[in-house]
Amino acid sequence: MATAPRPRTTTRDPEDLARRLGAWLDTRLPGAKASDVTVPESNGMSSETLLFTVEHPEPPLRKCALRVAADPAAYTIFPVYDMPRQYRTMRLVAEHTDLPVPRVLWLEEDPGPLGAPFFVMERVEGRVPPDVMPYTYEGNWLYEATGAERAHLEEASVRVLAHLHDQVPPEAAEFLALPGEGSPLRRHVEAQRAYYAWVVDGLPRSPVIESAFDRLQDLWPRDEGEPVLNWGDARIGNIIYDGFEPAAVLDWEMAALAPREVDLGWTVYLHRFFQDLTVSFGQPGLPDFQRRDRIEATYARLTGHTPRDMDFHTLYAALRHAIVMLRVAYRQVHFGEAAVPASAQDADKLILHHDSLAAMVQGTYW
């Protein structure tokens, strides 16, 4: 794991991006220049981030972050990148909640300046639990923290979800309702079916993913609950912390109207993904951190809503994550970093957590 090559994330030239950004900035803020333009090493494999400083004759000097839609030439993770939707979501959350959402400054819908739509927000200083190597591995700030410090961070992070779900009026977030028929949860799952079909178009299908879709029907909640604004990618790796307190909540591209438990299931499972992976490589990880029972209890205490049908929702999270991982693997195939799987079983093996997903389907994981 420590020596595995990181999959390619872009085909863009950082120097060209910096030059084009400077030209665009002058049209929005005449006389301004973009300096210290960098692409962070932790750049994700979906929308891309560019960090820069705005220099202008009139203060203040602003440190900014730019989120640009994924490079169409880089075998994108998702079929659509709606930057105005993300921009609007962040403004909505800032307006209705006390969550620390970075202030958004500009939205550019024209793909001309940088090759794709983007928005600019103020940069927030702090530290983020790492994904590579995962924070469950020894040698990073969160792993080295005390148990009390991690417990504080855990509760503060669950509070982010509690306040988001309680404070944003659902009617104000109607623009995030997914298309289709049926309940918000039905629409959410059907959107994932369509996403999976797009991922495997012309490529080997995944039996474990398809069995998980079938199992969802068996576990379907009798009472789905009312929809709320879901963050979407609800995990601590998308929060900047000042000490152990959230200073900025990032990455809203998966936001949607859905039951509360969709976010909670994602939070629970994404930690388990890192924890299981760490244990499989012979390290203890953080077995007492972000446990499912404690997250559910904390959320219930903060909101008065006891999470329901969490076997369904953690399975759904693991299924969604598997589709993303399969797409990442097929992008590696596209760039010649991996071989096309010879069979459906080999396609399953491209998903790092295929064993835990299979155990969830069989009801033996938790």
TrEMBL record:
Signal peptide: none annotated. This is Phosphotransferase family protein. CDD domains: ACAD10_11_N-like. PANTHER family: AMINOGLYCOSIDE PHOSPHOTRANSFERASE DOMAIN-CONTAINING PROTEIN-RELATED (PTHR21310:SF40), AMINOGLYCOSIDE PHOSPHOTRANSFERASE-RELATED-RELATED (PTHR21310). Residues 82-277 form the Aminoglycoside phosphotransferase domain. InterPro entries: ACAD10_11_N (IPR041726), AGP_Transferase (IPR051678), Aminoglycoside_PTrfase (IPR002575), Kinase-like_dom_sf (IPR011009).
